[in-house]
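Morning. Coffee machine broken again, so started the prediction first thing and wrote up yesterday's gels while waiting. Chain of 194 residues, entered below exactly as on the submission form.
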Amino acid sequence: MDRREFLGSLAGISALLPGLSLLPLREPSFTAALHARAAAAGLRTLNPEQDAAVTCIAEILLPQTDTVGATQVGVSRFIDLLLTESMLERDRARFLEGLAAIDARSRSLGGAPVAAASRQDQESLIRSLDGQLPQFPPTRAERALLDRQAMTAERGYELLKHLVVFAYFTSEPVAKDLINAPIIPGRYDGCVSV
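Came back before lunch.
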């Protein structure tokens, strides 16, 4: 999966993250402070195995290339901060169930949790889960139905992927170096007489 395809999958992030406000996307100083707190804090919600799984998947999704990768911007620590301070208890528990389901799927396919699996098995698992993502965000009724069902690896991956993207694109290095497009490109001449 290339970065362009990955960015194309961002549609619907606000629908999948109802417990999180997207205000930080508009407030760079706020997100910079959150990322700084996340980097300074130890793990509070994720245990080391869960953190390794999040880091592994985030790095497969957004590896370091000529731009910074997920690990360099501290995606897993930021997700831990969101889980601890921003998610409702129920949503946090569902996220952790989804992460466990991803690990269980990895064990059933390759005999090891995702973080300990071979790179080929990891990428195969992520490709498989990525292929199951819905084309469109679920409606409110569909989301309510999904919330009553047991968490699956596919749903867990969907939520994790959106959190990875959220954490990555709110980080300072990405905001400064990659997202440097002006808000209103070009020039606007309103009410100009001819």
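The chain has ten helices and no strands. Going to sketch it on the whiteboard this afternoon.
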